[in-house]
Amino acid sequence: MLTFEAAINHSVNSDIQSMQELLDLLLQEEAALLVDKLDDIEQLTPVKTDIIDKLQKSNESRMLNFSNLNSSVSFPDWIENHHNQSLAKAWTELMALASKAKEINSTNSLLLNQLAIRNQRYLSFLKGDNQEEVLYGRNGLNSYKSTGHTIKG
């Protein structure tokens, strides 16, 4: 049976691997967004969701085990003051990877929003919407009052 410290170390190192996988997926997602390959994004989404679920479950388990210590300090403070250099280094690496993933995810969100706005404009154009009467819909995107043109193909 692993000691508490060994279990935490194993958990953090496992999460580093998962976070690196997530970063790779986010970079693939970013590349797909830049070239407008939405099919690729659809394939990445369930894999990304699985990794995020795995990370969340690992963190919940780690925090549950930590709460059983009845420590008076927070988990990051405990790691910093525990004098285990390899664990502290692994935790710092995990937090750096998480920060980078947050940045890339934010960039991807902005790219996705720009694609949604562009697609909304294309749809409005195809529907023959009057560009002068701009309204904001419930979803926060521009919506236009349509004149109802029919497209025949």
Question: What characteristics describe this protein?
Answer:
153 residues, mainly alpha, Methane Monooxygenase Hydroxylase, Chain G, domain 1, two-stranded antiparallel ribbon, 73% helix, 4% strand, elongated
Number of discrete domains:
1
Distance between the termini: 70 Å
CATH top level label: Mainly Alpha
Number of helical elements: 4
CATH-defined architecture? Up-down Bundle
Radius of gyration: 23 Å
Structure notes:
- This protein is mainly alpha-helical.
- It has one domain (4-122): FlgN-like (Methane Monooxygenase Hydroxylase, Chain G, domain 1).
- It contains four helices and two strands; from the N terminus they run H-H-H-H-E-E.
- The chain has helices at 4-34, 38-67, 75-81, 85-127; strands at 134-136, 142-144.
- Strands 1-2 form a two-stranded antiparallel ribbon.
- Helix 1 packs antiparallel against helix 2.
- The longest helix is centred in the last third of the chain and has 43 residues, at 85-127.
- It is elongated.
- The model has no long low-confidence stretch (mean pLDDT 85).
